[in-house]
Design goal:
The strands form four sheets. The protein has an eight-stranded parallel barrel with strand order 1-3-4-5-7-9-11-12, surrounded by five helices. The protein is 37% helix and 12% strand. It has a single domain, classed as Alpha-Beta Barrel (TIM Barrel). The chain is of the alpha/beta class.
Length: 496
């Protein structure tokens, strides 16, 4: 018998801005990612106030899911997906975010996507806002700095809730909302980039405004959850956090305390608000010491109390260490930084691989909130080179995923109520952090390259066939290689 529940939601995850393309087709307006150039892990992406003719904007075509959705969803079904996490691009529905009437062509596209999912027995899991803020809202309100964006968001939510009430059950209000606690969040999360052109790592940071913008997102999320609960009782609404697992580098109490404080702000603050319905007590001191004053309107606290989520979801890619000791090695990774863990290996992009950290994190989250959970992003971004036979033999990706699924099973044995798993980038797509195609995550290879070339043809990698076996066995069979049958229970017995 598998450790995972019988209705476990195996699947994969993507985001509209990273795989749809068709950025100006059928009435779609520009979103923030449409104003972002390509880059690499050594050369940052740029965000531009207008599209520049000498720059490549990878989201404009991406992998063109817009015209390939039937083929792609059929491939997901071939793997046995129970769920597919995707997002709705706000600007397909409201091109500037400020219209009173939606764009029918945009609504029709997602009708077709969700109908195709249902035809294949795949349950959509929809992120309402996945780094896809209309750029017009940046120009007018400086992104989520403007409280007016709350009403724009709620209009958008009400529209898609009503349109897809019979097609979508599971919703996530914001992707990685806690990115707003970090300066890196100015880029795609908070969108504090009005009139800015330049590297994304040099965007001026106003910490007080960033946390004010986060408050606006909290209110927007809570209003959407409350509205959905009142009008669509069949819906389940979740939050979504980037879980930045960290450890003290040394047993020095200063390191231990610094690690705890970082976790409070980065890992717990946003979900404490969204799950518990109120600002936590520890944030008061943080705000005081950082000279942050949050402007709340009358009724905001009641809205937060009444708009708590039904389940908790998060992304997990890596961990890092925290230290107060100067001179320790820094690590890269999704804008988080941190100190290198000497016991862990790292990916080609410097992200330290820590499967047991996933079990540790799942237990932490479960102990804190006691609500159902999903791992909605997890995966290995890597260079995929075709072998002599012309195929992708991505054993490194299989190794990564196997180890993390094993630790999820251990967490379930620990008592964690885990309802699903959607590895990131189930088909190759544009990296949000670097704008690359070379940083590939998928089970499906897409012939699209960083210079914009490629015929967009799809090919199954070895991991495609491997994940198909994992799903078919409900996580019991985790072969070492594609053709090898080996159960998780046997691996446990050998101390894996």
């Amino acid at each position: 018998m598998s450790d995972f529940r019988n209705d476990f939601l195996w699947g994969g995850a993507c985001a509209a801005n990273q795989f749809e393309g068709a950025w100006d087709v059928d009435g779609k307006g520009p979103s923030v990612p449409d104003m972002c150039t390509n880059g690499s892990h050594t050369s940052p992406r740029w965000v531009t106030a207008t599209t520049l003719p000498d720059k490549l904007y990878p989201s404009h075509e991406a992998i063109d899911f817009y015209h390939h959705y039937e083929e792609d969803i059929a491939l997901f079904a071939e793997m046995g997906f129970k769920t597919f996490r995707t997002s709705i691009n706000w600007t397909r529905i409201f091109p500037t975010g400020m219209e009173t009437e939606p764009n029918e062509k945009g609504l029709e596209f997602y009708d077709k996507v969700f109908d195709c999912c249902k035809k294949h027995g795949i349950e959509p899991l929809v992120t309402i806002s996945h780094y896809e803020l209309p750029y017009a809202l940046v120009e007018k309100y400086n992104g989520w700095i403007g409280r007016e964006v709350i009403d724009c968001y709620l209009t958008y939510c009400k529209t898609i809730f009503e349109r897809y009430k019979d097609k979508v059950k599971y919703w996530l209000t914001f992707n990685e909302i806690n990115m707003g606690t970090l300066p890196h969040g100015n880029f795609l999360a908070i969108c504090q980039i009005k009139d800015y052109t330049g590297p994304v790592n040099e965007i001026p940071d106003n910490e007080e405004l960033r946390f004010q913008a986060l408050h606006h997102q909290f209110v927007a999320s809570a209003l959407a959850v409350r509205y959905a609960h009142e009008h669509y009782p069949q819906f389940k609404l979740g939050d979504m956090n980037l879980f930045a697992t960290c450890y003290p580098l040394t047993p020095d109490p200063e390191d231990v305390l610094a690690c705890q404080q970082r976790e409070q702000i980065v890992n717990w603050f946003c979900s404490d608000v969204q799950v518990r319905g109120a600002y936590p007590s520890y944030i008061r001191r943080f705000f005081s010491e950082h000279h942050i004053q949050i402007k709340m309107e009358p009724g905001d606290e009641e809205i937060l109390r009444e708009g708590t989520v039904d389940f908790y979801t998060f992304s997990y890619y890596m961990s890092n260490c925290v230290t107060t000791h100067p001179g320790e090695g820094k690590v890269a990774g999704n804008g988080l930084g941190g100190t290198a863990n000497p016991y862990l290996k790292a990916s080609d992009w410097g992200w330290q691989i820590d499967p047991k950290g996933l079990r540790y994190s799942l237990n932490q989250i479960w102990d804190r909130y006691q609500i159902p959970m999903m791992v909605v992003e997890n995966g290995l971004g890597a260079y995929d080179a075709k072998g002599e036979d012309g195929k992708i033999h991505d054993s490194y990706r299989i190794d990564y995923l196997r180890a993390h699924i094993q630790q999820m099973a251990e967490a379930v044995r620990d008592g964690v109520d885990l309802m699903g798993y959607t590895p990131w980038g189930c088909i190759d797509l544009v990296s949000a952090s670097t704008g690359e195609m070379a940083k590939r995550y998928g089970f499906i290879y897409v012939n699209k390259f960083d210079d914009g070339t490629g015929d967009l043809s799809r090919e199954r990698k070895d991991s495609f066939y491997w994940y198909k076996k994992v799903i078919a066995s409900n996580g019991k069979t985790l072969p070492d290689q594609v053709g090898e049958e080996k159960t998780f229970q046997l691996r446990i017995g050998h101390g894996s």
